[in-house]
Amino acid sequence: MRIALACGLLIALCACGSRQGLALKEGQQLPPAPYGREVKPLPTELLQTPTLAIPERSVELRTRSEKREDDPFDLPPPEDK
């Protein structure tokens, strides 16, 4: 009973978070402009995930099992002398 109550309290604690927009505090500044760029990026630009961080799957998944082809580089380990 105590474990269930503790887990429930932890879940409730994790669920309560601030849903306000992100903003700079007083006295804070945005990071300097990246090398080669004259204009500082906007906060919304800094929060966007770059395309390379979320690559798309380029390989089709196998839908059925297939026999493997022989691999000429799959050699047994060397024997100890």
Task: Walk me through the topology.
Elements: H1 2-15, H2 43-47
Estimate what percentage of residues fall within beta strands: under 5%
- Contiguous helical run count: 2
Low-confidence residue ranges = none
**Whole-number mean pLDDT:** 80
Biased composition (Basic and acidic residues): 57-70
Region (Disordered): 55-81
What's this model, at a glance?
By secondary structure, the protein is an all-alpha fold.
Explain how this protein is built.
By secondary structure, this protein is mainly alpha-helical. 23% of the residues lie in helices and 0% in strands. The model has no long low-confidence stretch (mean pLDDT 80).
